[in-house]
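Budget justification aside, the reviewers requested a transparent look at the raw inputs and outputs of the sequence design task funded under Objective 1. We therefore reproduce one unedited record. The lines immediately below are the structure tokens for a 263-residue chain.
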């Protein structure tokens, strides 16, 4: 639970940085704006790499939930209905799974928003991304990371609602941890209710392990691509500055045959 709180705090922090960077475009001068935009990009890329590491931790956690649900299925086959103590443990695992889903959704939204803002602030990024993806046809519409994150979120919602439908529920019925616990408690009164709940939780956990893997890969690709773009931008600036310095240096050298009064 502590890791979840830290992760959500980082998601919120990156979201604030995105809005702050956008505001900087209007509120600051050019020099200050460039500095703030560079810091915005650096912070976003660093957060992305950190998020990718945390996604792996969530994958491991969801995998443990999935293993637990398999064990509960076997217990049901042997004893017919779980005792209250085991059912309470199952309910806590479901709450943890729900929070993992919320983290994935929040992270997808934040990183998708970051991709859109990054593309707005760095005009050359769009063509750079096409080149990086090996797309040479300018007529091909850019499929940015934001689109991929939307697909991930939609897949999660569809799977969640599909699994909950067998219980006569939808995602809105689990809007809070307390509501989730109430729904699970209502299902605990019968062996059939327990079996259906465990099956639904198992399906959701299985899908989420694959979703988090895809999410992790997308975040890493985005962070690495944007980092490569920023390095290329910096290298281009360094080359221009070096050329300018060399030009000024050559102009400063006075030829002995030149008129000293010449500008």
């Amino acid at each position: 639970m502590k890791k979840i709180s830290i992760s959500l705090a980082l998601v919120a922090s990156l979201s604030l940085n995105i809005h702050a960077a956008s505001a900087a475009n209007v509120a600051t001068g050019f020099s200050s704006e460039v500095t703030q935009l560079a810091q915005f990009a650096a912070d976003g890329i660093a957060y992305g790499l950190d998020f990718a590491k945390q996604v792996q931790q969530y994958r491991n956690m969801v995998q443990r939930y999935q293993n637990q649900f398999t064990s509960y299925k076997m217990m049901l086959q042997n004893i017919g209905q779980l005792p209250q103590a085991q059912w309470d443990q199952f309910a806590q695992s479901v709450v943890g799974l729900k929070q993992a889903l919320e983290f994935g959704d929040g992270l997808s939204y934040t990183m998708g928003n970051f991709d859109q803002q990054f593309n707005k602030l760095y005009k050359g990024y769009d063509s750079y991304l096409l080149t990086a993806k090996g797309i040479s046809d300018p007529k091909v519409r850019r499929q940015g990371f934001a689109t991929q994150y939307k697909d991930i979120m939609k897949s999660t919602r569809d799977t969640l609602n599909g699994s909950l439908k067998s219980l006569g529920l939808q995602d809105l019925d689990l809007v809070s941890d307390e509501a989730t616990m109430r729904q699970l408690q209502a299902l605990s009164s019968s062996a059939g209710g327990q079996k259906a709940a465990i099956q639904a939780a198992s399906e959701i956990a299985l899908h989420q392990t694959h979703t988090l893997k895809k999410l992790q890969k997308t975040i890493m690709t985005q962070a690495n691509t944007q980092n490569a773009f920023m390095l290329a931008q910096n290298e281009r600036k360094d080359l221009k500055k070096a050329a300018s310095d060399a030009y000024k240096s050559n102009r400063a050298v006075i030829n002995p045959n030149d008129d000293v009064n010449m500008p």
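The two ends are 71 Å apart (CA to CA). The CA atoms of residues 81 and 189 lie 9 Å apart. Computational costs for records of this kind are itemized in the attached budget.
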